[in-house]
Amino acid sequence: MKTIYLSLVAAVALLLSSCGSSNSMLQGKDLPVAAQDFIAAYFPNATVQGAQKDPEIEGAVYKVKLDNGFALEFDKDGMWRQVNGTPQSIPDVLIPATISEYVDLNFPEQTILILEQDKQHYKIFMLNDVELSFDKQGNPLP
C-alpha cells in the first residue's frame, strides 16, 4: 500500500512539473525596451544567447544569457535586477561609486561577481564568497 501511494505521489509530481511550466523562450528583440537598452549600453559587444520569461518568479521575470557568459535578470518593465558575471567581474560602470569605494577600501584585490538590486537595497557577491548588502545610497548594511 505504501509503495502504491508513493508511486502515485511521484507520478502526480512528475505530471505537474511537466505541465505546469509557463516559461517561454524569447529572443533579444522580444525583451522589454529598457532591457534591450541596458544590454546595448553595458554589453555592447554581446548578443543574447537565450532569454526566458518566467512569470512565476516575483520581481525577476526575464532571465537572459549573453554570449559573453553574463547572466542577467530583469523585472517585468525591463529594469535590471541582477547581473551575474561569474567567473568574470561585473563592469565597473554598473557598480555605484560608493559601493565600489567601500569594496576597494575594505576588500582590496577582490572581484565583484554578482550585483543585485531591489527597490531599497543592493547586494554584491565577491570572489572570496563574501556577500555584502547596501542601501540605495551605497551605505553598508549590517
**Residue share in helices?**
25-40%
Top CATH class? Alpha Beta
Compute the number of structural domains: 1
The CATH architecture would be: 3-Layer(aba) Sandwich
Query: SSE order in H/E notation?
Result: HEHEEEEHEEE
Helix segment count? 3
The Rg value, from CA coordinates, equals 19 Å
The largest sheet, given as strand count, sense and whether it forms a barrel, is:
8 strands, antiparallel
Would you write up a description of this structure?
This protein is an alpha+beta fold and 142 residues long. It has a single domain (24-135), classed as Inhibitor of vertebrate lysozyme, Ivy (3-Layer(aba) Sandwich). Helix content is 27%, strand content 28%. An eight-stranded antiparallel β-sheet has the order 1-2-3-4-5-6-7-8, with no helix packed on it. The longest helix is centred in the N-terminal third of the chain and has 18 residues, at 2-19. It starts with a helix and ends in a 7-residue tail after the last strand. The model is unreliable at 1-22 (pLDDT under 50).
Annotation keywords:
disordered N terminus, alpha+beta, 8 strands, 142 residues
Topology:
Layout (H helix, E strand, L loop, with lengths): L1 H18 L4 E3 L6 H10 L5 E6 L8 E5 L4 E4 L5 E5 L12 H10 L5 E6 L3 E6 L4 E5 L7
Antiparallel strand pairs: 1-2, 2-3, 3-4, 4-5, 5-6, 6-7, 7-8
